[in-house]
Design a protein that fits this description.
476 residues, mainly alpha, 78% helix, binds phenylalanine
Amino acid sequence: MHAARVRNYLAACFFCMQQEQTTNATFSTKLGLIMATAGSAVGLGNIWKFPYIAGENGGGAFLIIYLVCVLLFGLPLLMVEFIIGKHSGKSAYGAFRELTHNNRWQWLSWSCLLTPLIITGFYFVVTGWCLNYLTEAITNTFNNLSATQLTENFENLQNHTLRMFGYSILAVLLTAAVLWFDVNKGIERLSKILMPLLLLMMLLMAGRVLMLPGSNVGMSFFFEADFSKITPDVVLSAMGQCFFSLSIGMGALITYGAYMPKRQNITVTSLQVVILDTLVALLAGIIIFPAVFAFGFDPAEGPELVFVVLPAIFEQMSFSWFSSVLFFTLLGIAAITSTISLMEVVVAFLTEATAHRRYPLNRHKAVLITAALCIVMISVCILSISGSWQWLVIAGHDMFYWFDKVTSCFLMPINALAMTLFVGWILQKKDVKTELETHHNIVHRTYINVFWQLVRFFVPIAILAIFLNGIGIFTI
Ligand code: PHE
């Protein structure tokens, strides 16, 4: 009897140690988690998507709504996802079941599988564009091209289906390699150097661009708000962009929350990530818009905006070859740290979902399956862009447009709404309180109360109103 109890005790200790190890295996330090979350957040969403969406939606007015969304929804929702992940210790697959002991919220888990998969469809294609531009920077292809030639250069890439396939698949393979060899530590260390380098590089570029004649027109476009341009659709786009940029509403942060070291302070981490992410987006706007007007491009050019404007900026910079190679390398890495988190959600989901099944998937198999799924999504996207599969063009838009639109303006808001309702109405206030307090930092009661009211009432009502208003069901 006694021996059995000792055995049970030892087994329990061993289980705990293993648990500790798996948690620690991914993020050994607080800084590691911050870097990984910041790596997930800062990416093409800030540097490629933010300027073009802002450009299409009137510049300054969009910027103000975006910043309000980041403060009112972005920050609390980041914390909401971290709380779900950290409290359950599970990925998006098991988190809701673990916390409710029933299957009622399982649809949300599946939605957290679907959303990143759809995002990978267009995100890897844009990452592929970056890699293509990196090789063009190395071979000096876009040096001394005029504005029209730069636009043609981008169109050539779009018409070159094979090249797009090649680079996008290369991006999937690079990401899969990081997940396969579990080299997160290496990436953590790398990001500690590369992230500040990216910021520094962007500061230098902003400095150069602001010296161009006519750059002030771009600055006024970006910073002067013309509220007549604001429609319900613009508000929904701003909210969607905020979710996309902060990687909210698709389970990435639930998964990272599960890997969070116990003593990590959720509030401080979230705040740091929000500030860094917003700073990078703002800098991207400060670089792109003055250049757009100085070189005579159209701010509402669409997804190609950054890819035609950036090479034109490098032509004006000293050490132009070096600057362009360095910048596209940094952009490529920023994109890959985001694709890592997109694929990690699916990998963690698959391993956890099959853990107690007849055919459990280990990490390696899960990485292979995820990579294959991503390649399917990319194929759908590329074949529809190039026009090879005309039936994939719906209502005049290709799948690149739809994948982006459906995730940012539909799936992510719905997932985020469900997650905030989950924390506000299903979790106990005391659980949320324990997660928000750490040994180092006793968070004040008022702060908890404000957060609690935001999450229970304000955030869900506001998301629902913007969403319904944006899709035209309900007008404010
Ligand atoms: N936040 C990333 C970016 O800004 C994109 C992303 C979205 C990554 C969702 C992971 C999950 O580029």
